[in-house]
Amino acid sequence: MDSQSSNFTQAHVEANGLEFAFLEMGEGPLALCLHGFPDTPHGWKHLLPALADAGYRAVAPWMRGYAPTAVPSDGCYQQGALATDANALHDALGGDGDAVLIGHDWGATAVYPAVNHEPDRWKAMVAASVPHPAVAAGMLFDYEQIKRSFYMFFFQHPLADAVVQMEDMAFIDGLWADWSPGLSADEASDALRALKNALADPENLAAALGYYRATIGGVGVDPKYDDIQNAGAGPVSIPALYLHGRDDGCLGVSFAEPTAAHFTHERSRVEVLDGVGHFLQLEDPERFNRIVVDFLSA
């Protein structure tokens, strides 16, 4: 990792019955940053210092199933489980009403239900690269998006575990190249090495693919998470920022603007960033950090 990463503290905490490993930096109100697939907390390596400088205790956990966080014994990876993890981490990390929740990709899918189910926990939210659930539901009815989302369907097949592991996870290299074609080779290499370390054990890789198998295939879905998961479909009442890269090769930019209709707070907004793709927080960290910190500081 780069020199910034060496300044992070790594620690562990138990939340929602799982042991979570996390990176943190700074002191102040909790800023919980949730990564997506295929990524790790190191995807936030530029944002964490910016949040710390802005007066937050910036924390980025490895999501459930990503080593060194534990693999859940119940095999639950639905969005309601991820959102429950976020709210449980708020408790475990000593969060209060000034805490903020930030998510990218799968992390974003956890943010909407987490803040809607327990809005008093969170002062504001930021989501990136996956829109509000009511908008995201339309992805499976859009021809161009179905083509982009081929991997989601491929992951339903048992063969996917072996294919993704082949040739030092070249499949994942391909996803990153397709999704963020403008990402520098150094940034991509650092992030991918951290990700491959987290998924090196077949059990961890199966967990990461389990997020997709729960969503499309209904594998391991537990009704105890229904209430919080269903909450995500409602309007977001706290201040909310949604960011999307115009060149996102994973999820088309046409899904970005409609998210604004599901934000009700006067400070909420959607912003599309030109010149970046799916991993916008790594492609143009200076701009991404400025927008996020300015929004949270308003």
Describe this structure in words.
40% of the residues lie in helices and 16% in strands. It is built from 12 helices and 8 strands. An 8-stranded mixed β-sheet has the order 1-2-4-3-5-6-7-8, with helices on both faces. A hairpin with a 2-residue loop joins strand 1 and strand 2 (18-25). Helix 2 crosses helix 3. The mean pLDDT is 96.
Provide a short characterization of the protein structure:
The chain is α/β, with parallel strands linked by helices and 298 residues long. It has helices at residues 47-53, 79-92, 106-117, 133-136, 143-148, 150-154, 159-179, 185-198, 202-215, 226-231, 280-283, 285-297, and strands at 9-15, 18-25, 30-34, 57-61, 99-104, 122-128, 240-245, 269-273. Strands 1-2-4-3-5-6-7-8 form an eight-stranded mixed beta sheet, with helices on both faces.
Please name the defining characteristics of this protein.
single chain, 298 residues, alpha/beta, eight-stranded mixed sheet, 40% helix, globular
Q: Which stretches of 5+ consecutive residues score pLDDT under 50?
A: none
Give the helix tally: 12
Q: What is the CATH topology assignment? A: Rossmann fold
- Straight-line N-to-C gap: 32 Å
Going across the biggest sheet, name each strand in turn: 1-2-4-3-5-6-7-8
Oligomer: single chain
What is the CATH architecture annotation? 3-Layer(aba) Sandwich
Rg from C-alpha positions?
A: 17 Å
Q: What overall form do the CA principal axes indicate?
A: globular
Q: What is the CATH class designation?
A: Alpha Beta
Strand percentage lies at 15-25%
Order of helical and strand elements: EEEHEHEHEHHHHHHHEEHH
